[in-house]
Write a structure and sequence with these properties.
Elements lengths: L1 E5 L8 E5 L9 E10 L2 H7 L16 E9 L11 E4 L32 E5 L3 E3 L6 H5 L1 H13 L9 E5 L3 H12 L3 E6 L2 H9 L4 E4 L6 H8 L4 E6 L6 H7 E9 L12 H6 L3 E4 L5 H14 L5 E6 L3 H10 L5 E5 L1
Parallel strand pairs: 8-9, 8-11, 9-10, 11-12, 12-13, 14-15
Antiparallel strand pairs: 1-2, 3-4, 3-6, 3-15, 4-5, 5-7
Helix pairs in contact: 3-4, 6-7
The protein binds NADP nicotinamide-adenine-dinucleotide phosphate (NAP).
NADP nicotinamide-adenine-dinucleotide phosphate (NAP) binds next to helix 1, helix 3, helix 4 and strand 9.
Length: about 325
């Protein structure tokens, strides 16, 4: 089978399409013929060698994808040949609260040899989630990291309720899912973006109010204009450049779901504001198989469709990395096998 990998040295220019032996499922495992994969910003970070010291080549990139079960190892009871499933992001985190033992980053999918950018993959059956028939392969491929992260940004701890207000930063993969989920949950949403065109796309998906954070750098003041008491929840992907503003426009007792650090990983924040305003800064790192199953159940009920921005053939997979690096695409960038 063919597989894209970083064999020895990190760097997009070092991604190679190579031949690897067909994997054989062991006890409790299934073999997937991969159908599609989908890129996250995090996959670019991995390939560039910036995902932490524990991650070393060889790496098969990308955490998100979907495949068809083509072979069963001994002892498999939940899945059968022909099922269409997504591998989960943290193969060891089935359910329950986050724990060190199940969240090692070097074993997260796409940070080791077990990424989805390959023609065949063996996974534990308990680390695979069946996807609904109404989703295309490309749509299903977007769920494991982007979909589950957005879901937990809105539901972890105190869940979003109908009528809640949610501020979503940017229109990247996680953020568009968060917009779609928040709209499905009956929340009032505000979306920020650097692009008026993308804000129009966000409006079409249900965004109530929109702010261009490039032309309105003090966007938090605009949020306060829409909602004088502040917003109930913020999906924070900007990091260093945005978190201080988020603290200023979240309501007393509100939640800032800390997802990404796109503008930088270190920030001096005014801690007294967090303390005195009962603000909850909640770190989120993707989620478990149980979280993923909740996503699929809710999506199937609402017939919610992920947004697809570009689809590339397998032999052009590095273009997906260039596209996410360049930004500009609204909707997920996928690769078909
Ligand atoms: N914690 C987790 O579990 C988890 C999971 C997935 C991703 N992440 C992290 O979340 C972030 C987003 O990932 P992604 O895959 O969704 O990325 P993506 O698809 O590449 O989206 C990036 C988008 O973020 C927006 N953005 C960039 N800088 C911004 C800023 N300063 N303020 C507001 N928005 C800004 C831009 O939106 P516009 O083009 O509209 O301006 C950009 O298009 C990354 O840092 C990633 O590592 C974390």
């Amino acid at each position: 089978m063919k597989v894209w990998e970083i064999a020895e040295r990190f760097g997009l220019e070092n991604m190679r399409l190579t031949e690897a032996p067909e994997p054989v499922p062991g006890h409790g495992q299934v073999k997937l013929r991969m159908l599609a994969a989908s890129i996250n910003y995090r996959d670019l970070v991995v390939v560039q060698g910036n995902y932490g010291k524990a991650i070393r080549p060889p790496v098969v990139p990308m955490s998100d994808g979907v495949g068809e079960v083509v072979a069963l190892g001994p002892g498999v009871s939940r899945l059968k040949v022909g099922d269409r499933v997504c591998p989960t992001f943290f193969p060891d985190w089935a359910c329950g609260r986050p724990r060190d033992a199940v969240m090692q980053m070097d074993r997260a999918r796409g940070a080791s040899r077990n990424g989805t950018l390959c023609q065949a993959l063996v996974v534990d059956e308990r680390a695979a989630v069946k996807v609904p028939d109404y989703l295309s392969n490309e749509e299903a491929a977007t769920l494991p990291c982007a979909g589950v992260t957005a879901w937990n940004a809105l539901t972890y701890g105190t869940p979003t309720l109908p009528g809640d207000t949610v501020l979503i930063q940017g229109t990247g993969g996680v953020s568009v899912f968060a917009l779609q989920f928040a709209t499905m949950m009956g929340a009032r949403t505000i979306v920020t973006s650097s692009s008026d065109d993308k804000l129009e796309r966000a409006r079409a998906l249900g965004a109530g109010d929109v702010v261009n954070y490039r032309t309105t750098p003090e966007w938090h003041q605009e949020v306060r204009r829409f909602l004088p008491e502040g917003v109930d929840r913020i999906v924070e992907v900007g990091g260093a450049d945005t978190v201080s503003r988020s603290i200023k426009c979240v309501r007393m007792g509100g939640v800032i779901a800390m997802i990404g650090v796109l503008s930088g990983a270190r920030s001096a924040i005014e801690l007294p504001l967090v303390v005195m305003r009962f603000i909850r800064l909640e770190g989120i790192t993707v989620g478990s198989t149980e979280h993923f199953e909740a996503v699929v159940k809710a999506m199937a009920h609402a017939r919610l469709r992920p947004q697809i921005g570009a689809v590339l053939p397998f032999d052009q997979a590095p273009v997906a990395f260039e596209k996410i690096k360049a930004g500009g695409t609204f909707g997920k960038i996928c690769v078909t096998m």
